[in-house]
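Service request form, structural biology core

Requester: graduate student, group of Dr. S.
Request type: structure prediction, single chain
Budget code: on file
Notes: please return the result as structure tokens.

Sequence provided:
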Amino acid sequence: MPVGPHIENSLRAMRLGRGWSQEDVARRSGLSRAGVSAIETDRLVPSAAAALALAGAFGCRVEDLFRLPTPGPSAVAWAWEPRRQPSRFWCARMGERSLAFPVEATDIGVISHDGVCRGGGFDHSGRFDPDRTLVMACCDPAVGLLATELMAVFGIRLIAVPRSSKLALARLGEGLIHVAGIHLARSDDADGNARAVREQLGAGYRLLRVTEWDEGISASPSLGLRSVRKAVGSKLRWVGREDGSGARACLDELLGNRRLPTPVASDHRGVAAAIRNGWADLGVCLRLVSEEAGLDFLSVRTESYDLCYPERLKGDPRIEALVSVVRSPSYRRSVGELPGYDSSRTGEMQQVV
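Core staff response, request fulfilled:
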């Protein structure tokens, strides 16, 4: 295994994704543990025989483990048009394309941008590698935990744009994001999220379980509400949720044929903000957000929250890192300690066929 030109490898992500130690990889491939370690840390470029042995151990292609560095983007296109110019952007590699994503508010906070677009021209600052940027659309208010682990363990930057479940799936189907976060089914409906993916996108996807979370009615403590029936039967003001969101499905279940409330919040924290600011008395959101805002919470249902990605991205180092982090003890512990989050099934995988 001679030292040679630099190549990129996803050996560590693949190994951790399987829950293997370096000794496990060495035993399965016939290489030494020291050799596996040297390849993982880019201190050694594997020979053709070693690369084939490692691919055989993982049951994947050599190119799923090793690749030449991708040259910087010569042309960039918007994933979706910005609302104004000039516009800051993030850049990520999506297959053979380099896409620019207009900077927007996220549940991760302020993420350093990669450049500014002025008059249609992209001015890159080269702050981060597009090949090590993972783009997700979701409504998980705790997605920052995932971003922290991905960066700390694998050096993968997560861009998590806030979108409803169905809009996230639409962007995934268009090839504009890597991962969609969805919660479109109760936790007792084992095929619910998979069915939603099949109906909207078809087969060829995977679902990675993050949590079962508690969704229900958030209310001002001054109301003194103690039951869902009393809340639904009241003439109090509701804040609505956008079409295509899991919370909207829950709200429709509660209100039935009643006229949908206005205004409409675009995410869970928007519901809590509307109630705290006196614009509404009640709304549907997650227990986590309601408790963070100091509001009362009445549980309505437990939902399965999954991360959906295309089968064709299996082997992408960013996806392998994502799977590894979600299955890690530290992430599962952090998720399980959040109000209304259950990590007992975190890391389970389901194929959409």
